Amino acid sequence: QVQLVESGGGLVQPGGSLRLSCAASGFIFSSYPMSWYRQAPGKERELVAFITAAGGSTKHADSVQGRFRISRDNAKNMVYLQMNSLKPEDTAVYYCRTEFRGGSWGQGTQVTVSS
């Protein structure tokens, strides 16, 4: 079955960096676009970044443009989110998602940006 396992979250000071990873299995990873979403307390889940199946095209939310970068390694079935210049408003649970069979989510990884 489809499995998405996120890692790399944690507590970081404003201005710091984190790299999130998502390990995928159970489907042909290289055939599907991947996304990162986030959900802050009391808010709806929102799209952060998207990458096409081959990795040739990406999109980032306006709120993270220039600070975050999504990438993937199809040989390792991994998708990443490099997060730089983190702000307190980036605090959220971050989820990766595949569109395989209508969509599947990982369990999420908590990112807390605080001094």
Overview in brief:
This protein has 115 residues and is mainly beta.
How would you describe what is shown here?
The protein has 115 residues and is mainly beta. It is built from no helices and 11 strands. The protein has strands at residues 3-7, 10-12, 18-25, 34-39, 46-51, 58-60, 68-73, 78-83, 92-98, 104-105, 109-113. The strands form 2 sheets. Strands 2, 4, 5, 6, 9, 10 and 11 form a 7-stranded mixed sheet that branches. It has a 4-stranded antiparallel sheet with strand order 1-3-8-7, with no helix packed on it. A hairpin with a 5-residue loop joins strand 9 (92-98) and strand 10. 30% of the residues are buried. The model has no long low-confidence stretch (mean pLDDT 97).
Quaternary structure: single chain
* Mean pLDDT across all amino acids: 97
Largest sheet: 7 strands, mixed
Q: What Rg do the Cα atoms give?
A: 13 Å
Question: Which runs of at least 5 residues are low in confidence (pLDDT < 50)?
Answer: none
Approximate strand percentage: over 45%
Helix content class: under 10%
> Judging from the principal axes of the Cα atoms, what is the shape?
globular
Helix and strand pattern: EEEEEEEEEEE
State the secondary-structure class: mainly beta
Distance between the termini: 40 Å
Total number of helices: 0
**SS elements, strand count:** 11
